[in-house]
Write a structure and sequence with these properties.
563 residues, mainly alpha, 19 helices, globular, unfolded protein response
Length: 563
């Protein structure tokens, strides 16, 4: 049942794998590991402590802030590949060497998704990696404190009249007085995963609050036909670039509405996305391609496909919209087969690359969608894409010092840069595509390390499935959020009870207490209607019978008391 292309690609690998294992995945996983370590070791040998490797000149450069970015971004990938020893070494190294108290201008967006997200993910994987854990983990720990420290450096950017953040912040001095107020849509709406995780783990609500305020402010700026543009003035709330689409500058905003809704069980975020999706399907979708249109009129402004849009089929699969996701993926895959990669811009009418946008910086988005769709359908077409990607990257981008971005897919010219997302995302999604029983997919059996205990007294079940990937492919465990937030709530309840018991009860209090404990008059049922001005207290997140902390988890799904 193997395709001829699959056999031709690596006949020795195929025969060995079939003879030894009866399946192909282990063989290809080993090739992907080799790809990772060639790039990773090249970075360590030639570029550390700089942010990124320059693979053509075998040296390094700082790009996003001067904090060994590739090492932070690659840390959880080490654990995904099963390398506990190196994970432990690098986690300790980062604690000793990385300092965020530096006079550097940093992208608020990139620092959040790569640094804060990478450190949070590594913190949540520390138990599985065999690191020594602090009492109460995952609600405390050195990597969590590093993530919190990095995120606090970003908070000055949110101090605006609208709550929408500036795009750049100086890590030492805050926002420059001359900083432009214009930022991209994704730069406003891509914080809820990391900031809500921080708030739920640490108990400091400020992070989640600023992320939600930014989301709600952005939501109010949509056009009359329900679309948002590409760049906005975060002070005046005026749209500067009015092209609406699902690609560069907008993409992860929509991604975080969906994933935030899943991770936080949040209907507000889901309803936001569903309303956007209706407008997107109505105005931008043509023959299962998604074009760019004018946000107020819906007229086509750019009939192009951007490589960053390739995340969309995977996102649609999370909502169960498989038919459209499969058709759109096939469109995108046809472009890959044409060039051996996805050019940054592809003209749909002309069927070719767009001038000065012919490059492929080893982006992960199509591989990411293949992973989700293979999980949803079991169709081996998506494994074929994974194999095509493995072959293309090895053949086109490999250098003696790592893997280089492709400057031009037409003639395979290379660029002297290896983005940190190659190790954080591209290799990780490729590996997970070929490992359907990986713990991040909820695989494994009891006694096989498929879940772990955490929280005070080990009362929480962690890592049992349902991981949410941030837009830099850093996995976050929803169970950890509920573990720590439930523990904080329990502590607060206990504090309130002890405080009330320590208060002397006066005559008026006793009378009031007596009235409260009296039942309704005979023949009259107790009213459940809210009194004027009274707010309904939402139920604590728990399973229907036992509290969540009593080791209840189904693929990360959390149920409310009234389910």
């Amino acid at each position: 049942g193997l395709s001829p292309a699959l056999i031709r690609s690596d006949p020795v690998c195929v025969l060995v794998c079939l003879r030894v294992k009866g399946e192909l995945s282990p063989c290809f996983r080993q090739r992907i590991k080799s790809m990772f370590y060639h790039a990773y070791n090249s970075y360590l040998d030639n570029a550390f402590p700089y942010d990124e490797l320059r693979p053509l000149t075998c040296d390094g450069q700082d790009t996003w802030g001067s904090f060994s970015l590739t090492l932070i971004d690659a840390l959880d990938t080490l654990m995904v590949l099963g390398n506990q020893t190196e994970f432990q070494r690098v986690a300790s190294l980062l604690q000793d060497t990385v300092d965020f108290d530096i006079d550097v201008n940093a992208s608020v967006f990139e620092t959040n998704i790569r640094v804060v997200g990478g450190l949070l993910s590594a913190h949540l994987l520390a138990g599985r990696a065999g690191m020594e854990l602090e009492p109460g983990w995952p609600c405390s720990g050195p990597l969590l404190r590093m993530a919190e420290d990095a995120a606090r450096k970003l908070l000055p950017a949110f101090q605006t009249p609208t709550g929408m953040p500036y795009g750049t912040v100086n890590l030492l001095r805050g926002v420059s007085p001359t900083e432009t107020p214009v930022t991209c849509t994704a730069g406003v709406g891509t914080f809820i995963l990391e900031f809500a995780t921080l708030s739920r783990l640490t108990g400091d609500a400020m992070f989640e609050n600023v992320a939600r305020r930014a989301l709600r402010a952005l939501w109010k700026t949509r056009s009359d036909i329900g679309l948002v543009g590409n760049h906005i003035d975060i002070v005046s709330k005026k749209w500067v670039a009015q092209d609406a689409g699902i690609g560069a500058g907008v993409d992860s905003y929509f991604e975080y509405l969906v994933k935030g809704a899943i991770m936080l069980q949040d209907e507000e975020l889901l309803n936001m996305f569903l309303e956007y999706d209706r407008a997107i399907q109505n105005y931008t979708r043509f023959d299962d391609w998604y074009l760019w249109v004018q946000m107020h009129k819906g007229t086509v402004s750019m009939p192009v496909f951007q490589s960053l849009e390739a995340f969309w089929p995977g996102l649609q699969s999370l909502l169960g919209n498989l038919d459209g996701a499969v058709r759109t993926f096939q469109n995108y895959y046809s472009v890959w087969r044409q060039f051996g990669g996805l050019p940054e811009f592809y003209s749909i009418p002309q069927g070719y690359t767009v001038d000065k946008r012919e490059g492929y910086p080893l982006r992960p988005e199509l591989i990411e969608s293949a992973m989700y769709l293979f999980r949803a359908t079991g169709d081996h077409t998506y494994l074929q894409l994974g194999l095509d990607a493995l072959e293309s990257i090895e053949k086109i981008a490999k250098t003696p010092c790592g893997y280089a971005s492709v400057k031009d897919l037409r003639d395979h010219q290379l660029d002297n840069r290896m983005e940190s997302f190659f190790l954080a995302e591209t290799v990780k999604y490729l590996y997970l595509l070929f490992d359907p029983t990986h713990f991040l997919h909820g695989g494994g059996t009891e006694g096989d390390g498929f879940w772990e205990a955490g929280g005070e007294g080990g009362q929480c079940v962690l890592g049992a499935g349902g991981f949410i990937f941030n837009t830099e492919a850093h996995p976050l465990d929803p169970a950890a959020l509920y573990c720590c937030s439930r523990h904080a709530q329990d502590q607060q309840d206990l504090h309130d009870i002890l405080l009330s018991l320590s208060q002397p009860v006066g005559k008026e209090d006793r009378q009031s207490e007596s009235k409260e404990t009296e039942g309704p008059p005979p023949g009259q049922s107790e009213s459940i209607a809210l009194k004027p001005g009274e707010k309904k207290t939402p139920p604590l997140l728990s399973c229907p019978v036992q509290p969540f902390t009593a080791r209840f988890s189904i693929l990360g799904q959390v149920f409310s008391d009234n389910t």
